[in-house]
Amino acid sequence: MRWLSAGESHGPAMGIVLEGLPAGLPLSADRIDRELARRQQGHGRGGRMGIEQDRVEILAGLRHGLTLGSPLLLVVPNLDHANWAEAMAPAPPGDGAAAGAPVRVPRPGHADLPGALKYGHRDLRNVLERASARETVNRVLAGAVAVQLLEPLGVQTGAFVTALGGLEAAPGSRPSLETPAGELAARADASPVACLDPEAEARMVAAIDAAREAGDTLGGVVECRATGLPAGLGSHVHWDRRLDGRLAAALLSLPAVKGLEIGEAFAAAAQGGRAALDPILPMPGGRVGRGGNRQGGLEGGMTTGETLWLRLAMKPLSTLRRPLPSVQLDSLAPHSAHRERSDVCALPALAVIAGHVLAWEAARALLEVFGADSWEETRRRLQEGERRWASITGPEPA
Ligand code: EPS
After folding, report:
1. Exposure string over 146-163, b if 16+ CB within 10 A, otherwise e
2. What are 64-111's pLDDT values in tens digits?
3. Ligand 1 mean position to 133 CA, how many Å?
4. Does ligand 1 have an atom closer than 6 angstroms to the CB of 340?
5. Which residue, judged by its Cα, is nearest atom 21 of ligand 1?
6. What is the pTM (predicted TM-score) of this model?
């Protein structure tokens, strides 16, 4: 299963082609729209979210609510494009059309400068439009399809904010790893900063307001979880089949995400193995269980069957109302960096987006093990797979 995306932030639309789904999977456009709306929430967003009302147009691959097995074509129009119709027109500017002044002062932390050097763009807008975090609409499109595949199988994903601008949620507010991840996501949605600690939430909201006042931006940390995953997704046999590496690639490629920690990786780096690892224990029902989940539900690049959990570090956004020093590329004179309307903090949106990226990677890994051409056959294989414990536990068959 794979997808390719396209779309510039102020261009006509965002969209993906998604290929490899089984045929006969029920998909709902309303459900995709609900997920897109969740991504638009959160304290700290700029004026753009007042303009957009993201809604999917399903243009191929679905008939009467069921997948055909052919590629899905999903498109979300950019409503703000109406305000950029000339500056972002696909066609060459006609006589007298306003092509827009070129952006010539790169922002520290953004793709502006390396992107211009790489592609030879003199107008930095040719870089920043595609580097925009509006791209995460496409991640949610793919994730919202994956969610509809996972949910009937009892697999849920979700994420919540644990720290914002240096303010941390109280450790006691962290839900147990047994909490279904969808429940976490619903609780995070009820908070303006996707935080499950009401006391920290109030301080985080105030910090965003203060940063807005100061012309600054804020990042933070989100914890992402997937519950209900069977053991054995991903593989130890080759580096590019390891699910830890695949999740890292998918999640670290999100705009402004600079760090990822699986389970208690950084704490474990300072501990002995006896403290850091999760003992294996006999359980009733012919299975074995674990005395803890510090490894984040991943061992040897495979799911263990425990809750998969990891944390992401998001840097403060690079578009500052009080910009950092930069250079005007025409004159090479010192100049404060390019300013344009942007968000103060997009961490609550990251919680929603990361849950969708996790859903996509989980669904992809699941179909690699259990997938078939039809949804019916995929479900049958999954039920059979549940019997795998019996093949490795108990005495050797006579
Ligand atoms: C973004 C800048 C802002 C954000 C945008 C990401 O857009 P604009 O410049 O139009 O105000 O709102 O995020 C989205 C549009 C979105 O849908 O998440 C940036 O520079 O990355």
Report:
1. bbbbbeebebbbbbbbbb
2. 999 999 999 999 999 999 999 999 999 998 877 777 899 999 999 999
3. 6
4. yes
5. 132
6. 0.97
